[in-house]
Amino acid sequence: MDTFAALAHGMAVAVQPMNLLYALIGVFLGTAVGVLPGIGPALTVALLLPVTYKLDPGGSLIMFAGIYYGGMYGGSTTAILINTPGESASMATALEGNKMAKAGRGGPALATSAIGSFVAGTIATIGLAFLAPWLVDFAVRFGPEDYFALMCVAFVTVSATFGDSPIRGLTSLFIGLTLGLVGIDKLTGQARLAFGVPDLLDGVEVTTLAVGLFAVGEALYVASRRHHSEEKLEPVRGSLWMTKEDWKRSWKPWLRGTMFGFPIGALPAGGAEIPTFLSYSTEKRLTKYPEEFGKGAIEGVAGPEAANNASAAGTLVPLLTLGLPTSATAAMMLAGFQQYGLNPGPLLFAERPDLVWGLIASLFIANCMLLVLNLPLVGLWVRLLAIPQPWLYAGILVFATMGTIAAKPSVVELSMLAGFGVLGFLMRRFDFPIAPVVVGLILGPIAESQLRRALAISLGDPMTLLQSPISATLLALALIALLAPFVLKGMGRFKANED
């Protein structure tokens, strides 16, 4: 009953005119950037962080969540029409969606994608509302050693999940952890890695790092691939609406996709790519029309798109209750919380219930807005694909620079922005994941302070980390997550040698 009361209070906050405007701006921007290939919601939130630092925290976070949901919706448009997923989570949608578009059924493909996203997003948001308080009650019992162990799980799972190579993921993480050491040591008061530069004594700004890696790095990377061939746009032919047969074949995949997306998205090693491909393979096995798969089966669009959007709500569960980001956009939202001096976790539910429940309630509103925006305005989203890339990325560079200057006018800050932009370009060029760098910078100092607290309480005994059942279990999980990719890779090579 408490959850219903909290949700009702959150809805009262979410329907305030300014918050509705923030939600509308968020879902509109999110859909637009989801449609544009290469510009995901993480990049958009990173760009908006320095611009929104003086705005209302609740409204800004509602806008960021709208961008996240909208990006998941918009990514399917390019996946279906030009076979180029706007988001990596839309890769499974492209397999059947583009075939449907080439067969003249782009309209029903976009419709089942939008409606499936709405159904999954609504069910998953209800799951978020009821699961979050339970997790908060559990997290309240955590001691400093338990929080440190939880951070270790986050470090390892994020590093292993993002990108193809766990070694590269861990390398990216250690770059972030090193950047987290810059500044004044809170325990001793000594400067660390500041190299005599006064601007570095406050540490590296998360917004500068995020904008440099995501926005500037992406612009440089796209410029380096300027002469690669462009995809041909498939026009939307025929009716946009679904037939009775399409509805009949879509509703079960929507529900199954939700069941895949929400729990996997809520796991520390979740993300949207795993449930979307699981949903696709499940629909391929269960379909009554196996001959259509590979030629444009509507189930292959409905299931993955539902899983995609359900995982977005699932990602917010560990973010809001434990402060753990499990996707690049969630890491940007965590940076947004910290920009306003807020730390997601059990205390936030107690200290700022209006903000947390207003954010959760706004997701229901964002879902309704997205359904209204996506189907009638599909022509507008398609026109966005005609924007020349040089104009688009030049605008992003200007916006990134102006936002950084507005947040912290300093030559050192602009130099760091340029340096992080080059780093982001090199990481993309050599296939190093970027999200672990941001996660390392945000969570590294928190993990350090929790470890120091645990050691201070135990008078320097490191065995205190294994004496708590929770921390011992979490450290064991972190070790398993660290070793598992290497073991699986070794087994694969051994099997290949045997064959």
From TrEMBL:
Q: Taking every annotated instance into account, which residue ranges of this chain make up the domain DUF112?
A: 20-438
Q: Which residues cross the membrane?
A: 20-49, 61-82, 109-135, 147-163, 170-188, 200-223, 355-379, 391-409, 430-447, 467-488
Q: Determine the domain of life of the protein's source.
A: Bacteria
InterPro entries, sorted:
DUF112_TM
Q: Sorted alphabetically, which keywords does the UniProt record give? A: Membrane, Transmembrane, Transmembrane helix
Q: What is this protein called?
A: Tripartite tricarboxylate transporter permease
Q: What is the lineage of its organism?
A: Bacteria, Pseudomonadati, Pseudomonadota, Alphaproteobacteria, Hyphomicrobiales
